[in-house]
Amino acid sequence: MERTAVRDLLNREAPLDAVRACGWVRTRRDAKGLSFLEVNDGSCLRNLQVILEGPLAAEPLLRRLTTGSAVAVEGALVASPAAGQRWELRARRLELLGEADPETYPLQKKRHSDEFLRGIAHLRPRTNKYGALFRIRSEAAFAVHRFFRERGFVHLHSPILTGSDCEGAGELFRVTTLREPPPAGGGGENPFAADFFGREAHLTVSGQLEAELFACALGRVYTFGPTFRAENSNTPRHAAEFWMIEPEMAFADLEEDMALAEALVKELVRHLRAHCAEDLELFARWVDPELPARLDLLVERPYERIPYAEAVRILQASGERFEYPVREGGDLQTEHERYLCERHVGRPVFVTDYPKEIKAFYMRVNDDGRTVAAMDLLVPRVGELVGGSQREERLEVLERRMEEAGLPRDRYWWYLDIRRFGTVPHAGFGLGFERFLMLATGVANIRDVIPFPRTPHNLEF
RNA sequence: UCCCCGAUAGCUCAAUCGGCAGAGCGGGUGGCUGUUAACCACUAGGUUGCAGGUUCGAGUCCUGCUCGGGGAGCCA
Prior knowledge:
By secondary structure, this protein is α+β, with helices and mostly antiparallel strands. Helix content is 30%, strand content 24%. Helix 4 packs across helix 6 (254-275) and helix 4 (128-150) packs across helix 7. The two termini are 34 Å apart.
């Protein structure tokens, strides 16, 4: 008999005489002559209550039906006479597919700490919270593709391996097949001649440069893939491997860039509310009671837009006692960003037009000659969710900026070629997928929104 | 990488001033009941993260290390 997902069984409008359900036992409750089994198969948050009677509710079978064991049950889906569930499965046959020793099975019928569950990341998707989380993650990923597809974007598979050794976005992981690789940066006559690529190779820190090339051919593209940063960052918002969404639009300026970012965040939230209501409810109930109100803030009103210079004035006039003083021309500290977003504006805010000295070489220099057409989207709790800019499309200006940044022009000949042949204004941004999930669920640590987190000294599983 | 905090039963935690290492949950056994965070009784379970030091005596004080959490920097 074919298996039916628990979700489909529980959503039935009418009873069914013969069905087969498979899943993992969450708990068992025994009564006189019968036993109740809660079975979850991951298709939804809810469990299927299975009724065992007669020989099925007798030893020695019963004692082996423990929390965590896997079962296949066949029987009739009938209306439940008791409160708590609409349907239940009256079992005629039960097959114990896999036992789980209750002495050693780590998951108990109780609440576990996130730290503990990180240590058993192979089992944590079997809990209510992480099952819901990863269903939400999957649905959000689908919504990303739908969003861009509906707007005529082409999905670009940008490379994971890169030969660019200084993309200006943090430390890179080196990739080599050599048993004894030469020191980073090399020196002398190509020390990587014997390596696989014959030159120094790394894992990508961004698909942006490649996305720019394709945007200047296909018009509107986006990448959505893993990204790697070898920064020794130990915070709840950083991971060494994370997923980033990077759209890039030809014939677009910073205004359109911000409009796209705002539309994307809003659409993702709306999509999750429409398709993951049950799973989201768990987070509002157990993880973050403020979640529904915060999601309202994300969806309802236009996001604020504040130029950097004005942000500095606001901060200096705030009367707030910051640990680090607000300095014109300097980077905004985390405490400054939080004040702007959470206290001053109270909802997402774009900070734009930063001084060029503190931003990357590829960002377009504004007419004032001092600032660049850059934007950061700051959101409550998570901080920087999006970082983007209009790209420098003027060859001479870009070359000058690269020189100032100390970047070797010859390594980026292809990037510069795009400015030589039919250059056009274009813009794009990067959105941290895990940071979005933190925002959407209220989960406070990035390690808890990615299946198997990679952070300094953590490569288990 | 820097600063702060922590590590005690399977899990979450307690242990006064340095003086016999405990509770709840989970597990096991028995009982009760169309149960649903099930309930009641009994029971097992410990090299107090690792290494060293001070002391008659260390879970407790000191040093180093490992791991974890929070904050900062970097950023998505």
